[in-house]
Amino acid sequence: MNDQQLLDELLGKHKAGTLKPADRYNIPPQAMPQQDGVTRRSNVSEVATGYTETQARLEALRCLGCKNAPCMEGCPVRIKIKDFIAQIVEGDFQKALDIIRENSLLPAVCGRVCPQEVQCQLPCTVGKKFKDVEKSVSIGRLERFVADWGRKQKEKSVPPVAAATGKKVAILGAGPGGIVVATDVRRAGHDVTVFEAFHKPGGVMVYGIPEFRLPKAIVQEEIEGLKKMGVKIVCNFVAGRTKTVKDLMEKEGFDAVYIGVGAGLPMFMNIEGEHLIGVYSANEYLTRANLMRAYDFGKGADTPIAMSKRVAVVGGGNVAMDAARTAVRLGAEKVYLIYRRSEKEMPARVEEVHHAKEEGIEFHLLRNPKRIIGNADGAVCGIECLKYELGEPDASGRRRPVPIEGSEFTIDVDTVVVAIGNGANPLIGQTTQGLTLNKWGNIVVDENCKTSLDGVYAGGDIVLGAATVILAMGQGRTAAAAINKYLETK
Ligand SMILES: Cc1cc2nc3c(=O)[nH]c(=O)nc-3n(C[C@H](O)[C@H](O)[C@H](O)COP(=O)(O)OP(=O)(O)OC[C@H]3O[C@@H](n4cnc5c(N)ncnc54)[C@H](O)[C@@H]3O)c2cc1C
Fold this sequence. Notes:
This protein is α/β, with parallel strands linked by helices.
């Protein structure tokens, strides 16, 4: 029986009310179609190509529609998951999209990049039944299917905007948090301007997450939607330098400000050789590759990037995976991923690790750089590493990596990408008197995302530390609701 025949049979039972939980458990989890590991090494197109309609409806039929909906508890923005999935079963994709949009403004993004395996899919009853989260209903893939269906209709409605209130709101940073705040505050009729430091809006969704995981066109469509709502977007504006928060409020007449400038400050290892030519922070590497289109080598890329042959990426998170997989696509013959713990402790998503391995990236686990070696021209020619073993758990609960003395070895490389974490962007904290920060430089907010200053709100990575798109969106919604309330009475 082919997939379509299976779907027809199951839909028949569903309509007759005779589809039992046991029938649902028997439906095979639908694999995501994707470009094969070899083909995709030489292109930047999206790796996962998306469910077909038949696959989506089969996957949706796996959902038991649990009364207590544990999946919804796992979703940071509380999407009515079982309701939208039920609409996919019925084939009413517009209704499914409307349900998702009640809580999430960026479903095509979240369906692609949310870590569902530790959020909505973790408590899924189907996954629990099989004691395997990979067998949970693929909520993220279904969200993506519905969002992509909506994009294909090309008639995305522009959210209605209330009558002008005469109040002005400034949004600093055009990442997912800023985009959500701009949408919700503009809906209430306020005059909204987004100020972005880069020449393009979108935040990490544009400069960090590579095209092969999140096509830039998707983010661009969201930005166009904002503009159609009447939101003004000013790029090349570094808040704290071009103008301060105080200037915006006291001289430019903004009644409220939202700070969503993210966590883009790269951390380094502070080892010998980090100043050498060919050492990049992952942020710089990815920004050059993504935002400046360095992958177009010579074809109009404003900012070049090294044409590396042998690349070492240091780190074990999603950012490290993105950098390593980008290096492959930029033509590197060998890409090594160096991580000081074992694969079990890697913070990267399992899917990313799996994809990286399929693309031929060599994992050097329980290894960490001791120094970076340079040649006579001051360029990287090697990286000296130490072997590690795991000791007792540390404060993070993960086993502490302990170096093995005398275990040094060298790998010949011409490029090193450091992907060991990012800190809060410090500029606004440094230039805004009275703004309370925590010891890591993140802005302190209350439950409404209000900062220590009246009329000033903040959210996303600048508050949470490097976190996720969905958490930035969730805080954006909270902040927007608080701003709208604040402006009602101001
Ligand atoms: C490489 C990489 C991969 C990631 N992968 C995932 C993933 O798969 N899934 C996931 O959920 N999350 C992922 N994340 C994390 C996620 O992207 C962030 O948590 C999220 O983008 C934070 O949103 P934000 O709106 O707070 O800030 P950002 O997206 O960081 O946007 C902040 C914006 O503010 C601008 N800005 C900074 N300073 C100023 C200033 N002074 N004035 C004006 N503008 C300024 C920046 O240029 C930027 O455009 C990844 C992060 C990175 C770096």
